[in-house]
């Protein structure tokens, strides 16, 4: 990593631990900063805080005393999930204290160029596609996954060499906390309305995403979804070289036309050869192909990887089948659009949808067209009543209510027959019943394993 000295003997407050805060605190400590960590979890339950204290880092846990700001901090590094309405953050802004997230630190120390992927949906899948293609095609270097995909960027960036690259999934929460950060190649998969409880408005949400390209130059590339008029308009405001991708028209980039995928004039593969189902995964693949071609990866490698790519955990992930009934885990579908995209990849008459979760006050009217002709819908969680109403409006003949994912799966199997698809795609966040979408997805997988074992015994 780059040996930077700007943080030596500087007092820095790290607000919130989890993986990113823990990584940032350790890095800043190693760079010579005088680090104070503040986390809401009590010390006796806080393994990260205990480990940091053992390193000689000051930790304050169990509450967020506003008096902390009386110290002469020169910087705050916040956990991305903590909203800017938090009293400590509000106080820091009033004092004019710079506030960043740990991806800014990763950018400062990384010797390798960054490929940054953001967007409302498809970030994780596109990021994973890119990493797999690059690592299959590069012979003397390596692509490293990092960022919102679960690997703290400020930790991964320590190990990369100049010939490597950081493939970084970026959330709007992370991007809001950047100052000089920029990728060498940026990708915006799509832009829809999301996280308004955090950002306050669609305009602020889009601005956070677009912040990724603020410092990009004519020597950088920005891969954009040309299907969206909003994105095409934004493209006129960047200094980066724009590489479009589209499933609707021929563009000077990656596109799908009459069942064939192209990059510029070169045929890459057939749409039907993609291993991951759904029209949304065609868009994800186009974005990944554009990045791969910008990195000089051969068409043979691209085709081979995408043919064998069947999805990432919890994102339209194929789990297996029982008596020719196929099971898919799309727990990462935490909004309506993600569920609509998942449903687009299957024949509706064969789909039994499992949906429900945290009530954020969303209307499910926009989901109704995607529910039409489904074989059955099973609902659970705080939003079960409104989802059931949406299914009724769509004319779904079988609508069942159950407690949670674990009870929904065997009920769905009872309603199924050979060639059907049982799809967990909740259209809601998980926090009413599960700590995160991963835990919800694992509950689905465990329920599948239990059911399969039971059926095999019979």
From TrEMBL:
**What does the entry list as the binding residues for ATP?**
119-125
Describe the function of this protein: Cell wall formation. Catalyzes the addition of glutamate to the nucleotide precursor UDP-N-acetylmuramoyl-L-alanine (UMA).
InterPro entries, alphabetized = Folylpolyglutamate_synth_CS, Mur-like_cat_sf, Mur_ligase_C, Mur_ligase_C_dom_sf, Mur_ligase_cen, MurD
Pathway the protein contributes to = Cell wall biogenesis; peptidoglycan biosynthesis
Domain named Mur ligase central: which ranges?
117-292
Q: Which protein family is it in?
A: Belongs to the MurCDEF family.
Ranges of residues in domain Mur ligase C-terminal: 314-427
Protein name, as recorded: UDP-N-acetylmuramoylalanine--D-glutamate ligase
